Amino acid sequence: MTETERAVDDADDAERAREQGGGQGLSEPFWRRSAPSPRRWVRDEFGVLLVLGLLIAGIGIPYPDFLDTDNLLSTAHNSVYISLMACGMVFALSMREVDLSVGGSYAMCLVVGALLVRDGTPPWLAVPVILVTGIALGVFNALVTTLLALPSFIVTLGTLMLFRGVGLALADGKQITDLPLNDSFFTVAGGDPGGVPFALWVLLAVIVVLAVVLSRTRFGARVRAIGSNPDAAAFSGIPVVRTRIQALALSGLTTACAAALALAFYGAGDPTLGQGYELQAIAACIIGGTPLAGGRGSVVGAVAGAMILSVVASGLVFFEVPINWTSFATGAVILVAVAADSALRRTGRRRR
Questions:
Q1: What is the pLDDT of residue 95?
Q2: Computed over its alpha carbons, how large is the radius of gyration of the chain?
Q3: Tell me: the pLDDT tens digits for 9-20?
Q4: Within 10 A of 71 (CB to CB), how many other CB atoms are there?
Q5: Phi then psi for 176, rounded to 5 degrees?
Q6: For 196-227, how does the pLDDT look when each residue is reduced to its tens digit (9 = 90+)?
Q7: What is residue 275's three-state secondary structure?
Q8: pTM attached to this predicted model
Q9: Which long-range contacts (CB under 8 A, 24 or more apart) does 335-344 make?
């Protein structure tokens, strides 16, 4: 059955049950019927996780220092901001939308938070404002996309520059400093509780929550159904516009979460941060198995894709690759990772 068939309203329950041989009763919850099985999840994410493991081993064997716990934690921490953006981007891509504005949203949310803290707002109280700002920016993207009937690619390309411009204007084109770095927000949220960066604990929580939301909730099923066949999804009664707004708002929320963590870690608001993050987030999603054609996605795979990009960047330092070749090497690894994952998926389909 297609994702769309699994995402239609409860009026089709009896027909779906008959199509599946009566294996699912009418009383079974919708979220369970639409959720991929654990075996399917392992199979879909195996390729990108294998590539990540091979990369770590390939760098760690000639350079054992790369496998040092502190270095691995630092490498993982460097991927947190892209990972969080990718977690939200998965929902947009799964329903054939693209949010290119995340780099600008990230910078603007970071500046807003830094200004609030500098002007006397307790840092912990500034966090909800940062998150609401991110949600508002995502909703703005969705409303413009809907009202003007334009592709989200075009709209968010414009808002990318719009949001970054607002951030630069608010910060007067320079870093916002003089923040109370002795506050618990900076020492805890920007520190390493339990020997692990606080941002990694947040990322882990986001992965768990959003993986469940995408695979085992009505909202996640609607996202995948719209991505599989937008016309059929609309015909079946799925609220396409509302789901688009929710998906892009979620992308804004995860981006704002990344901005709040960046503020805690860097202790300043730099309006120039986040340049190119939108392309890295999209690349991480694609590496992790979320196609631009929509219909499916993987939060775990997207984070693994972001980790791959971070491992490559860290590995280039150990191999002493000149900085001019960094972009070339990163692009090559992206192509290899996507090709390897695609080959594993084709092999799995032939076996089934």
A1: 93
A2: 21
A3: 433 443 343 334
A4: 16
A5: -100, 115
A6: 999 999 999 999 999 999 999 999 999 999 99
A7: coil
A8: 0.85
A9: 336/51, 337/48, 337/51, 337/287, 337/305, 337/308, 338/286, 338/287, 340/47, 340/50, 340/51, 341/47, 341/48, 341/51, 341/287, 341/289, 342/47, 343/47, 344/46, 344/47, 344/50
